[in-house]
Fold each of these.
Amino acid sequence: EKGGHEYFMLKEIEEQPDALANTLRGHFRSGRVVLDEQRLSEQDLRDVDKVFVVACGSAYHSGLVAKYAIEHWCRLPVEVELASEFRYRDPVLDRDTLVVAVSQSGETADTLEAVRHAREQKARVLAVCNTNGAQIPRESDAVLYTHAGPEIGVASTKAFLAQIAANYLVGLALAQARGTKYPDEVAREFAELEAMPSAVHKALSTMEYVRELARRMADSKAVLFLGRHVGFPVALEGALKLKELAYMHAEGFAAGELKHGPIALIEQGLPVVVVMPSPKGRAVLHAKLVSNISEIQARGARTIVVAEEGDERVRPFADELIEVPAVPTLLQPLVSTVPLQVLAAEIAKSRGYDVDKPRNLAKSVTVE
Ligand code: F6R
């Protein structure tokens, strides 16, 4: 049932192009983005004046990615909250607040409690979920299913990419309802999303190189991950994968924060994974990241760079270069996450750990 793969996670990593295609399927009809499993009207979407994304773990990272897109497309304030923090604060919610609860399992206790809390405050709740009929969609006003298929590996992979795509559909539906994007722009954004399964397929071709790199990294004590803009949540996700699978100390940082503390951690031989923005799409940020990399390299770090193919400016600073296909900036997490998933799984395997069942973790966390 692992389809000839050594472990489920590898199978699920390879299924990501199909998972994405399934998430998107049927959501663009007659020139419009449709969220047809939802019970929110066009007017409800128009009335939204603030968005909260609440989730845990990788699902939370999918929300961090979506914030960049939804703010940009919809001109709406977006807060992304860890579900376990959200409900014990006093978040400011009312009936024009849209709470997007993202959960692969749909059973995560903290996210479920956040949904209940939001509904008590009369906010509208849209669940983004991978599991039909789970508790979170049952208690929400509306649901958008990701249709990524069952995920067996405890570490989330295809469900995470599907969550990003689903969150983007929510963003496009909001932009469409609010008129912050013209219909042809919404159509173009959707077409770009539809091109992602093939881009992710190309990103999978990094697999052999990353597996070999992973074997060489297996003895590292710690790994840092740096990114900016949408690359920052990707860095957090890469670090989470490595912690949970390889039991290594791994931290993700916003690259701009380096000088405000983390640079003190840099020492001879420390592997630092850097998620680069596009040299064309985000030239200013790209230049800043190149300068960060040269600084950490000068202090002896071993730089492992995930960059757009053909990025010649970063090449001299990359001790290891992982090239992913060029895609629009907001969609980069869908390709740049892929090698980081493989890296974590293969380091775990090299260290002799069970990739599909990491110690102390459960696939769905139904207690707080
Ligand atoms: C990480 C991972 C977890 C889950 C988190 C939320 O690889 O799998 O961090 O993302 O427990 O789970 P769901 O999405 O089921 O609510």
Amino acid sequence: MNFHLTEEQEMLRKMVREFAENEVVPTAGDRDEKEYFDHSIFEQMAELGITGIPWPEKYGGAGANFMSYVIAVEELSRVDASIGVTLSAHVSLGSWPIYKFGTEEQKQKYLRPLAEGKKIGAFALTENGAGSDAGSLKTRAVKDGDDYLLEGNKIFITNGEVADIYIVFASTDSTKKHKGISAFIVEKGMPGFSFGKKEKKLGIRASTTVELRFDQVRVPKENLLGQEGEGFKIAMMTLDGGRNGIAAQAVGIAQGALDEALNYAKERVQFGKPIAKQQAIQFKLADMASKVEAARLLTYQAAWLEDNGLPYGKQSAMAKLMAGDIAMEVTTDAVQIFGGYGYTRDYPVERMMRDAKITQIYEGTNEIQRIVIANYLLKE
Ligand code: CAA
Ligand code: FAD
């Protein structure tokens, strides 16, 4: 067993950390406050080659692996979870299904520009009546000659209106329930495809979360991903890996909060000495650091399994469950260590605490992760 990262992975971490500190940190508070997505940050990520980290070079990727990808998401999320989820939704959810299930033509047409960061990806599964119960979705795709006509609404879609390429799940045969669901690659600008409500959120406010509307959108049959009826399986398999991207986001948020709290505790003087000299604060920091490390190990283990062609769905769900809960606990402790200042927007820990909450909710709530983990346990 080897717990060391490779030299390339250490270099990648250093590069992404420098980028995050220099280019992301300066505007993180403002983007959170005013709730806007900054396209130029995504463009810089493309220039650094991190928009297609795990994909082969022949598809425009960096030819690295999922361990490198989770390191990048972690480092971005350490300073700004909105940027972390932008990358995670783009790679794990918008690109992975094309890499895994796409034809060669679909990969060249869609995966390449996604990997190169010329286009942004998104994943549209959730609907008003189908959140945790994703198999009950109502969006329809009806065959019309060589095309499908897509009709319905999706809600809460990350990268919403800023994306260009969407993996959309719709029913092609409602009599078959989840076995009648199919996956489609939908492009921004297809007639009848528009955007609805933009959510105003508690956290990750610099990431967009938008409703998608499909009004008789004509999707050519070449844009069917996989086979008709394979959509639910594609969605579930995509989420198996995607959940580890969210685990990495949660680890990054927690590490960021720990770093902030540690620095502050060494500087803040009360009762004539830094609060870090109080054992109560030291114990809190020790617990925080231990939890972050445990969450990181689970997350890296799931990435390692995927990189080595081994089953990773259970570990990925475990990583997301643990890392999400730990991010919430550690950020709450960080605010406590900052005292009243932590509650204000003068310091980033309150943003980190607000951002952490979503990691327990999206890509399947943590209650759903327990169902997924239990399903794996019972099958084993
Ligand atoms: N891989 C392959 N196949 C799978 C699978 C997996 N991981 N999980 C389930 N399946 C298959 C099952 O084998 C079964 O196949 P058969 O019918 O052929 O036997 C079929 O799918 C149905 O399985 P279940 O009966 O277990 O399905 P269910 O309806 O009970 O739902 C669930 C299971 C795990 C709760 C699922 O609905 C789920 O994951 N819900 C949460 C939805 C979710 O995570 N949404 C995230 C949206 S994306 C997002 O949020 C983005 C973001 O954060 C940025
Ligand atoms: P519900 O399913 O209504 O759940 C409500 C509560 O009931 C939760 O606590 C849940 O855990 C619990 N519950 C439900 N069923 C069970 C059960 N069987 N057992 C125990 N407890 C249960 N979706 C996408 O498709 N693409 C995206 O890009 C995307 N991005 C998102 C970004 C944000 C900021 C948000 C808020 C959501 C996003 N989502 C996205 C949707 C997200 O995946 C769903 O919100 C999530 O899966 C939960 O669904 P729901 O909100 O309908 O909650």
